[in-house]
Amino acid sequence: MALSFRQSEILELARAEGKVVVEELAVRFDVTLQTIRRDLAELAEAGHLDRVHGGAVARTGVSNIAWERRRGMNEGAKLAIARSCAALIPDNSSLILNIGTTTEAVAQALLQHRNLTVVTNNMNVANILAASSTCEVVLAGGTLRRSDFGLVGELTTQFLAQFKVDFAVIGCSAVDEDGDILDFDLAEVRVSKAILRQARQKFLVTDSSKFGRSAPARLASLVDLDAVFTDQPLSPRLAELCAGSGTELHLAG
């Protein structure tokens, strides 16, 4: 389909920020909500976007967005989410952080904590926390994934099985409307499942652009978690799912 100027702008915004919101687009372009919804429906029908509650997200297919691009997407939301999560992690505790730009933001937010033991398969997290003189950093072995400096594979999974920590803090690529937490790489999913098994409390940190997206590999469900940290209210269906399972929802402002 031939895109209008407004639709082209909407598509660029979605690709740059991960998600676009109907109300914000209506204000930006000075048009009605119905006009924006029609634009999003046409873009979705053409295969450019996926519709989600309240807006749309860029379609990513079966491979994730490049790490460098993901790092700059929704940066403000990730920082707020990270601060909200870090506030519930006390000094003198142990945790595992997995691969992801939001977990890297959590590592940054933990720099003022004291006497943490942090296990990670994310070399970026290890480099961030190396700046803390009181934080013990334990880096997993495994196969290096050069695209994002994550360590994955059977060796990583076996290494993580040696620990029992207070908190697991994981990110993800997508959360669908059934509450399933999804990712693109089966090797990474196996590692993240191992991380959840080895933690007393399980936290998910993810910005709102991940909700309503799709990815081919299932990691867990929202009902398996103790808390979710995000930046926008969940859809009624997901909010009800969390409430029914006792999964706490923390909205970072």
Automatic annotation (TrEMBL):
Concerning SUPFAM superfamilies, the annotation shows: NagB/RpiA/CoA transferase-like, Winged helix' DNA-binding domain
From the record, what ranges are coiled-coil? Answer: none
Its protein name is DeoR/GlpR transcriptional regulator
Domain HTH deoR-type: residue ranges? 3-58
The alphabetical list of record keywords is: Repressor, Transcription, Transcription regulation
Q: Does the keyword Transferase apply?
A: no
